[in-house]
Each structure stands twice: as structure tokens, then as C-alpha cells.
Design brief:
single chain, about 700 residues, alpha/beta, OB fold (Dihydrolipoamide Acetyltransferase, E2P), 5 domains, 7-stranded mixed β-sheet, 7-stranded parallel β-sheet, 27 helices, about 40% helix, about 20% strand
Length: about 700
């Protein structure tokens, strides 16, 4: 295969994300087909699945003789070939075929058929678009057949062509070893060349040392890239904030509660960052209700007390409004002017608020991520607080750092340690792992939808008890998903309205932002006993008198989302309850999620289980952000290896700018650069950006 420099790189490979020879080298087989054994057709009728089943069987090889072939038109035009061997009959089906292919299936012709057998009620054992080889092989000839690798492919690219390119790339562009031999021996791992060749040659169990070697390289490359991004931030200057006005101290004294030990520890870490003349980028993470927002308020106070401004950004306008009300309450009497930037402002209001930020008379702006648009100019921005900022991609996180501003991220989703030390290695992380005193654990109950009527009496008693409740539905207007109808918000409203009358408030996605905010504020003032809503109340809503959370069709929600919803109650004194209504029958994954919620209210334990269920891409929202995931490494399964990769990556990253130090450690600087460039584009992009 000619190199990309001598010949244009095939576009069909780019469709697979294969843009360089080394990408082909790391494009490992999906499976292997054994062409050394032959299965009788009759034996395939046992234990294979109908075409309507979701399961995928294993590929087999049969040696067959053609009985006849014909083109049929039901249910669509296709070529059907009847075949036989000494044990019985079967058929081959081809939806895409031409005249020469049809003519090749003459009566009595011999073929080797390789593919996944299925069972058809009309035709018995059948193969759909199998791989074919003309003629039969003797038993002796079969024994000499090697395993055949089957690679992830795309339309217009045959396995033979792809396999040819891959093996040519392995011969000409196989990566050289970068690990010193003594370290390789200590890790008890094979060389990189041996690992790559073996993974392409024959199937390997997930626990094999060959997979371990490739995964180690992947984790190390990720760690170096992320830690380099982190170290680049330490070279960006930002104002040292010492809070000469002692505004943070005055805020602490004015708060109606004391910080917990975990909050105090996070605040000391944060304050130390702000005191330095380099840009902070810290993530404060903790369970729902653990008190992250007050830490953000202290960061804001430190900036304003140092003569700078602050911006607080939330992912939605409703959550931004909640933060605005909270900050307004806490800063009352401290002489801090705050503005709320939202949609629906008149042109005059918006112009006045932007002017106040631009001339420095407004100290704090709260709003959505629209705050970072070019039209919003700050006179002296010192701190930006970004809610759920860890869900941004690394490239987005880097862009936030531009301009010499201290960045504080907040995460209401506890992040497992393995995830934090890999995907978030470019951030400094503070953990709040302690509940405020006096808060009782929330009692969680699971109730079938068929017993929904049991909730009527408790809901009607709430007003007398001075309590309120949320009722959350997953969708509105009775939308259907792929499996079954979900109870609609409007249907639930029709059921609840006769029972609660004007004590029922309703919020859903079709309302304008101002209408949503009006209903939410009325609920916070106690004008409604029950708030019927979609998931707009998932994060950020703080109503201490809300002591009951009902989640309708809880099986339709993710584990982290359910935990967030449960955290909306239990913020005041007294016992609070979360009731998970579910529709039977439940899928296995839904059973696991609901069982986890019932068994524990520890957000970090739930996050660990969620990672096992969904993987890091969904847990952090990386699939939506376009962030490259670890392709071969599983944080749960490979935990021991991940720790080794993290340690090794940290060691190399710390010495990255010192060639002599790298050489003392046994690493060739060019070999480390090659390691980074051969892996995901994350590494290349980050090194370019720094």
C-alpha cells in the first residue's frame, strides 16, 4: 500500500475515522472466523435464532452443493439459492445481486459458505449474504486454514480490501517501542509490536496481556495530554484575588448556617487557588444537597472583594434564575449589585444591564452560558462559575480558560474516582462528601403504577402538614417511544386536578420561560401544594417545605437523573420521601437502576454503579460534546491497569518539558511524542492548543 504522501488517502477509510496508517494498525478485529472446520447443515438447526430475534449467532462454515436458484419477489426482490450437504438442506439469500452472480449458482456447483446461520419458518436454515468460496476443501486442506479476522467496515469497503490495507500498514508503519525494557519487565507486559500482531492474528480474551499493553498505551497518552493541558493553564496569568474588602468573611458571618468540614476543606482549596496569580480551573463536586453553591458564592465574594467582577452560568434559564435568587438572598446587605441576564428582557433593560457590566458598576451577572457571548463585556472579570461545566468537552474547557479568568465548575453528579482521574485529569477537583447537619436520609419507596391510587390520600394531607410535593413525568402529551406508551403529563393532570384543584401547579416544556418561572416561584412561595412537572426541576430547585417526590414511570429515567430528582426533597427538617412509580414488566437494566436507588442514597456509590451501567461517555455527557472516549479501556474492568497508566502518565507529564529528565527516566522524548500522536486526536488537539 502506498503511503498517504504518494497517493491520496482513500475516502472510504475516512468514513471509518481511519485517516493515517497508524489508525489502520490500531483498527482491531471485531471477531475471527474459523475456516478450518465445517459444520453440517442439519446441526445448525439446533440453538440458532429466528430472523426476528435480537441475538446474533457465531459465524460458521459449511460446504454445500447448489440444488437450484431463482429470483423471488416476496417480500422484496431477492436471489434465493437452495443448497444441500449430506446432512440436509438450507438456503442462501441475496438482496443485492447481479446477473453474473445469479448465473454462477448452477445446479451441482460446490461452494464453501461462511456466515451467521439463521432459522426461517419457510426455508429452515438460511444464510443472508454469506461469504462464498468456490469449491470444496479436503479435511487435510481445511486443517491448514488460518483464522480470518473480520474488521469493523463500511459500505463500499470489502473485508479483503480492508484486511490488505491493515496488514500492509502493520508491516510498514507498526509503532516502535517507547517503554524502557526494565519498566516493561516490571509491568510484566509484552512489547507493543507483539501485542498489536497478536491482536490482529487471533482472538484474545479481554484479560489478556496483549490487550493490557494496548490499553496501557491508551491511558498513558490520555493522561499526558490532559495533564499537559492542565500544566498549560498554570502558565496563564490571572489576577491574584486577596479579598481586601473581606467580603467573603462578611458573607460567611451573614449565612444562617455553618460550613461543614467538607465545605470548609473545599473553600480552603479554592481560596488558595484564587490567591495565586495563575488561572484557577477547579471543579467542586458533591452529592445533591451537599452545599456546593455556597462555595461558589464565596468565590464570587472573593472576586468582588478584590475589586473584580464575577459571572455565574447555568445550563438552563430556570436553573440560572434559582441561582440568581439564592445569590440575591445571600448578598443582601453586602452592597453587591447583581443582574440577571435572561431571554425576554426589553431592549432597554438588556442595554442597561450590559452597560453596568461594561463600566464596572455591576459586580455580578447571573445567567445561562450566553454570558460568554461577545456581546457581553465585563470591565474586570475575575471569576466565572460554570454549573455542570465538567460536561463540556476538553477543547471547550480550554476555551473557557482564555482571557486570564479564574474558572470554578460545579457538578451535582458525584463522579467516581476512576472517572475523575482519567477524563477530568486536566482539572483540579474538590469533593464535598458530607451532608449538612440535621438532614435526615430520604425514604425511598417503589410502587407499581397499578397502585397509584394509594397516593391520593397522602397528597391531600400535605397542606395540613405544611408540606409540598413534586410529581415528575418523563414526557408530555402521551408521546410514544419505541416500546410502549409513557404516562403523559396532561393525562396525569386530568387525574390530579379534581383531587387538588387550585393547589396543583403545572410546568412543562411548552411553556415560555417567563411562565415556567412564574409557576416555580409560586410553588416556592407555597401557593401550590403539588408541582406537576417534567424534568425541568431536576437540578437547582430549592424548596425546603417540599418533602415528597413522586417520579412517574421511573423506569424511563437514568440512575443519575433519578438521584438528582430525589435530591430536590429533604432540604428542610423532618422526614422526606421519594416514591418511584414504575410500569411492569421491567427490563433488567431498569430493575438494576431502581434497586440501586432503593438500596442506597450515597451519590458516590450510585455514580459508581451508573458508570458500570452506562460507561463514561454517557455519564459525563461526552457523547454529546464530541469528546473522544477511551476506545479499548473499561474503567471498571481494567481498574488496576488504569491506575498504572495514570501513574505512568503523570510521571511522564511532569517531566515532559525537560528532555534530560525524560532521558534519566528512560524515555526518549521523540518516542513520547510518537505515543501521543498515534492515539486519539484528543492528544494532538490538546498539545496544539497548549
Amino acid at each position: 500500500m502506498a503511503t498517504a504522501a504518494a497517493k491520496p488517502w482513500p475516502e472510504v477509510l475516512r468514513k471509518l475515522g481511519l485517516n493515517r496508517p497508524v489508525d489502520l494498525v490500531l483498527h482491531f478485529p471485531l471477531r475471527f472466523e474459523d475456516e478450518s472446520t465445517v459444520q453440517p447443515l442439519a446441526s445448525l438447526g439446533l440453538g440458532i435464532w429466528s430472523s426476528a430475534d435480537d441475538k446474533q449467532g457465531s459465524s460458521v462454515q459449511c460446504q454445500v452443493e447448489v440444488i437450484d436458484s431463482q429470483v423471488v419477489f416476496k417480500p422484496r426482490r431477492m436471489l434465493r439459492v437452495r443448497v444441500k450437504d449430506v446432512s440436509g438442506e438450507g438456503q442462501l439469500r441475496f438482496i443485492y445481486f447481479n446477473a453474473s452472480m445469479q448465473a454462477a449458482f448452477t445446479k451441482g456447483a460446490h461452494y464453501r459458505v461462511i456466515g451467521v446461520p439463521r432459522y426461517s419458518r419457510l426455508g429452515g436454515v438460511e444464510f443472508i449474504h454469506p461469504r462464498l468460496k468456490k469449491g470444496w476443501l479436503s479435511d487435510e486442506e481445511l486443517k491448514g486454514q488460518p483464522l480470518r479476522a473480520v474488521y469493523p467496515s463500511t459500505s463500499g469497503l470489502t473485508q479483503d480490501r480492508l484486511s490488505h490495507w491493515i496488514h500492509k500498514a502493520i508491516e510498514e508503519h507498526s509503532p516502535s517501542e517507547w517503554l524502557p525494557q526494565d519498566r516493561l519487565n516490571r509491568l510484566r507486559l509484552p512489547s507493543l509490536t507483539d501485542a498489536i500482531k497478536e491482536l490482529h492474528r487471533q482472538p484474545q480474551p479481554q484479560e489478556s496481556l496483549f490487550w493490557d499493553r494496548v490499553r496501557l498505551d491508551e491511558v498513558v497518552a490520555q493522561q499526558i495530554a490532559l495533564r499537559r493541558a492542565r500544566s498549560s493553564r498554570h502558565r496563564v496569568s490571572a489576577p491574584a484575588l486577596h479579598d481586601e474588602m473581606r467580603l467573603s468573611e462578611r458573607l460567611l458571618q451573614a449565612l444562617p448556617f455553618q460550613l461543614t468540614d467538607a465545605q470548609h476543606r473545599a473553600w480552603l482549596q479554592l481560596r488558595a487557588d484564587l490567591n495565586r496569580p495563575v488561572a484557577m480551573h477547579r471543579l467542586v463536586q458533591g452529592d445533591v444537597g451537599s452545599g456546593k453553591t455556597v462555595i461558589a458564592a464565596l468565590a464570587v465574594a472573593t472576586a468582588i472583594g478584590s475589586g473584580y467582577q464575577a459571572a455565574v452560568m447555568a445550563p438552563t434559564e430556570i436553573l440560572a434564575a434559582q441561582l440568581y435568587l439564592k445569590f440575591e438572598q445571600w448578598f443582601e446587605g453586602l452592597g453587591v449589585e447583581i443582574v440577571f441576564l435572561k431571554g425576554g428582557l426589553s431592549e432597554r433593560e438588556r442595554r442597561e444591564r450590559l452597560a453596568g457590566l461594561a463600566n464596572g458598576t455591576v459586580a455580578l451577572a447571573v445567567g445561562t452560558h450566553a454570558l460568554i457571548q461577545e456581546s457581553v463585556q465585563f470591565a474586570r472579570l475575575g471569576v466565572s462559575v460554570v454549573d455542570e461545566q465538567h460536561r463540556f468537552g476538553v477543547a471547550q474547557r480550554i476555551r473557557l480558560r482564555e482571557g486570564g479568568v479564574h474558572i470554578l465548575g460545579m457538578s451535582a453528579t458525584p463522579i467516581p474516582r476512576s472517572l475523575a482521574m482519567t477524563y477530568l485529569a486536566d482539572l483540579d477537583v474538590s469533593v464535598i462528601d458530607e451532608r449538612p447537619p440535621g438532614r435526615e436520609p430520604i425514604r425511598t419507596r417503589l410502587i407499581s403504577q397499578s397502585r397509584r391510587e394509594e397516593l391520593v390520600e397522602p397528597l391531600c394531607r400535605l397542606r395540613q402538614e405544611g408540606s409540598q410535593a413534586y410529581w415528575v413525568c418523563p414526557v408530555i402529551e402521551g408521546q410514544q417511544d419505541n416500546e410502549k406508551a409513557v404516562a403523559a403529563l396532561e393525562e396525569t393532570e386530568q387525574w390530579l386536578r379534581p383531587l387538588l384543584g387550585d393547589e396543583l401547579g403545572v410546568v412543562h416544556g411548552r411553556l415560555k420561560a417567563a411562565e415556567k418561572q412564574s409557576v416555580m416561584q409560586a410553588f416556592a412561595r407555597g401557593e401550590f401544594t403539588v408541582l406537576l412537572a417534567t424534568t425541568v426541576i431536576e437540578v437547582g430547585v430549592d424548596v425546603p417545605s417540599a418533602r415528597v417526590m413522586v417520579v412517574d414511570h421511573a423506569e424511563r429515567f437514568g440512575l443519575a437523573q433519578l438521584h438528582q430528582l430525589r435530591g430536590r426533597v429533604g432540604r428542610g427538617s423532618g422526614q422526606s420521601s421519594c416514591i418511584l412509580l414504575y410500569q411492569e414488566p421491567l427490563s433488567e437494566s431498569a430493575k438494576l437502576r431502581l434497586r440501586a436507588l432503593y438500596e442506597t442514597d450515597d451519590g458516590f456509590e450510585l455514580a459508581r454503579r451508573d458508570l458500570a451501567l452506562r460507561g463514561p461517555g454517557e455519564l459525563l455527557g461526552l457523547k454529546q460534546s464530541g469528546e473522544p472516549e477511551l476506545r479499548f479501556t473499561d474503567l471498571q474492568r481494567d481498574e488496576r491497569l488504569v491506575q498504572k497508566g495514570v501513574d505512568l502518565g503523570a510521571l511522564i507529564a511532569d517531566a515532559f518539558d525537560d528532555s534530560e529528565q525524560l532521558l534519566k527516566l528512560g524515555f526518549e522524548p521523540q518516542a513520547i511524542n510518537n505515543l501521543l500522536s498515534r492515539w486519539h486526536r484528543l492528544a494532538t488537539d490538546l498539545l496544539t492548543s497548549v
